[in-house]
Amino acid sequence: MLVIHSKQDLDEQLAEWRRQDDHVALVATMGNLHAGHLSLVELAREHAERVVVSIFVNPTQFGVGEDFDQYPRTLERDTRRLKTSAADLIFAPDIETMYPFGLQDATTVSVPRITENFCGASRPGHFDGVTSVVARLFALTQPDTAVFGQKDYQQQLVIRHMSLDLSLPITILTAETVREDDGLAMSSRNQYLTDEERATAPLLYQVLSGVGAKLQSGVRNFEELESASLKTLGDAGFDVEYFSIRRAQNLEIPDRDCDELVVLVAAKLGDARLIDNTVVTI
Ligand code: PAF
Known about the structure:
38% of the residues lie in helices and 20% in strands. The chain has ten helices and nine strands. Helix 9 packs antiparallel against helix 10. It is globular. 37% of the residues are buried. Residues 28-30, 58, 61, 130, 133-134, 152, 155 line the site of pantoate.
C-alpha cells in the first residue's frame, strides 16, 4: 500500500489508475483509525477498484478551545491498520499541500441553513471547515465515490448538499455506524473517556434506541420524548448540547406524518464530546 504526501505523487498515481480505467473511491479521515473507518474502506471498495484514504487533521474545522492540539496523530499505526484493509493508498498531505495560500487566504466553501443548527450551532465555523477541506480533498483525489459515516449525520447531509449544489461528479455514500459491543458508537474521541465515563457512555445509544422504538411504534409527542431523554442523560452526568427529533432528509422540524425521522444527540461526558443518532423509517 502506498503512502503519499505530495500533490505531484498523488497526481501521478491517479493518472496511472485512470489509464487502467479504474474507479477511485475516497474515504476522508483525520486518522486515529478504528473499526468504523475500516468499514468505510470496505464499503468504498465495493464501489471502486481503487480506494484512497486521506489522513489530515484539518485545523479549520476546530473551534478555539477545542481539541485540535490533543487530536491523536497516529500515522504509523494507521498505516499498519490499513495495510491489511482494502485501501490502496494513504494520502497524508501537509498543511501547505491542503492550503497552498495559507489559512488566512484560503477559499472557504460554505453551505447555508442545514449547517446552522446542532453541531453547527455548538461549534461555530465547524462546517465551513469541513466543507472547505472536503472540497479540497475532492479536487485533489478526484474520486468517483466518497464514503462518509452515519455517525456524523449532519456532516454527511452537508456534504451531500455541497456536492449536489456544486454539481460535483461524485457519488456520496453513507456507511452505517459501527458500534462497540455495548452500543457506544466508535469514535476517535472515545479515548478521552475515563473508565467511569466509559461505563456510562453506552446510555447515549440506549436512550436513542428507546426513542427510536417509540417513534417506530407510532408515538408522536416529539417534545415530550426529547425532554424526557434530556433529563435521563442529564441525571446520568451527560452535559447534553442537543437531543432532537428531526426530518431525516433535511433536519427540519417534522410534523406527525413524517415517515423518515432522525434522532440526533450530542453530549459531553468529561472531556469527550460524543455524537450519535438513529434513523427511523416508518
Ligand atoms: O469526519 C471527519 O473525520 C472529518 O470531518 C473529515 C470529513 C475527514 C473532514 O476533515
